[in-house]
Amino acid sequence: MSSLKYWIWLSALDGIGPARANKLLEHFGTPENIYQARDRDYLDIDGIKPNDIKKLMVKDLEHANKILASCAEVGCRILTLQDSDYPDRLRNIYGPPIVLYIRGNLPHIDDLPVVGVVGTRNCTPYGVTTAENVGYKLSQSGIVVVTGLALGVDTAATRGALRGGTHVIGVIGSGLDIIYPPENKTVYDDVSQFGAVISEYPPGTPAIKHHFPLRNRIISGISLGVAVIEAPKKSGALITAARALEQGRDVFALPGNVDAITCEGSNALLREGAIPLISADDIIDEYIELYPDRINVSSKTNLKKTTEKKSIDNATKVDYIDKGDHIADNHTDSLEDSLETLLGELDGNEKTVAQTIGVQSLHVDEIISDTGLSAQEILTALTMLEIDGYVLRDINGKWEITA
User: Fold this and answer.
1) Is residue 182 within 8 Å of residue 174, measured between CB atoms?
2) ∠ CA 113-118-119 to the nearest 5 degrees?
3) So where are the chain's domains?
4) SS3 (DSSP) at 152
């Protein structure tokens, strides 16, 4: 605990950001050594300027002690770069935060599949629905979802993830006692209770605009990949995607309406090579082999994956043939009965899509071609059908009606 005040002193020095703080730590070893150093000791450190030295020469721990006291009042934990439970994923990025303030229970990140879900605050209803569905299915499968707890896509993905039952992480750009936006208090409290809210800023720090781009590197830093749901050309979500690429993380992007301003940035990511995100299964499939003991999928999906990998011999009987290209007659009869019932319950685009799929397995582009509906209309309908459990996407990217 005695050394903690030096970590806080270094992290809270105005104008000495994470990158310079890490350079200082590389040179001096500990924050206490940095604090005890004389002005001439800083001269030979690359990137440390005369103005930085003036700030470093303010040898006052009063502010650090006040922060420690405020942490006790707020009820937050402090994690430093030297702590063994500081995530290695985050420690190994460029300019990691040297101090993290945590409210709630932060899981052991390095042992878990963690995925960031980000997007614009001004998202469409399609974006809200998709984000919530993706958050829910990822969490339900055992993947930890991390968001920035902003309005729009972040809030929707967080709500979905909370329903899914796995830990949820929120990374904010203010002190843990400053809820921004204020209308997200319920979401903030739920994440604190069923996961963790983290920040590199001490209690009392307001939500300042330039904090949020810095916050984004933490979202990507603790994640295996980042899913961009909807993002215009100039978007914090795109900053997160850029940080993810720099850190060697995967980037997923939801295809959006080519005419929608809210999708210009996310569609551009797809042109640049992002992994297309049609449903949460695209993310689950990416990581299930890396975390077979952590990621759970539905029994139907497990059966399909197992069947595809099996050699079909006389001792093995299955209800459908490898890759789902043909379905046995008894299964077809059952599906036709289920489809007839389903079509009687649906209307609008959802009914059109379900009717088009029928007893087949179809790719999205086939559904678009057969119906004449737009990509956004098709994806919205598929999302709603998937939420209700009427359709699922197989491992080949085809959609089919659930029997």
Assistant:
1) no
2) 160
3) 1-72, 109-287, 299-401
4) coil
- What backbone torsions phi and psi does residue 78 show, to the nearest 5 degrees? -115, 130
- For 1-72, the fitting CATH number among 3.80.10, 1.10.150, 3.90.25, 3.40.50 is 1.10.150
Of 30, 80, 26, nearest to 48 by C-alpha is 26
How many other C-beta atoms are found inside a 10 Å radius of the C-beta of residue 199?
Answer: 26
Contact (CB, 8 A) for 160 and 183:
no
What is the residue type of 363? H
Residue by residue, DSSP assigns 227-249 as EE----SS-HHHHHHHHHHHTT-
Condensed to tens digits (0 to 9), the pLDDT of residues 333-378 reads 555 667 777 787 888 888 898 889 888 888 877 888 888 887 667 8
pLDDT digits (tens, 9 = 90+) for 17-44: 898 999 999 999 999 999 999 999 998 8
CATH fold group of domain 109-287: Rossmann fold (3.40.50)
String of DSSP letters for 79-123: EETTSTTS-HHHHTSSS--SEEEEEE----GGGS-EEEEE--SS-
| Two structure tokens written together for 357 | 């799929």
Question: Which residue ranges of the chain lie beneath pLDDT 50?
Answer: 1, 299-332
Which residues, 6+ apart, have CB-to-CB distance to 251 below 8 Å? 225, 226, 228, 241, 244, 245, 269, 274, 275
- Any idea which architecture 299-401 has in CATH? Orthogonal Bundle (1.10)
Which DSSP string do the residues of 293-330 spell out, in sequence order?
Answer: TT----HHHHHHHHHHHS---TT---SB-GGGSSB-HH
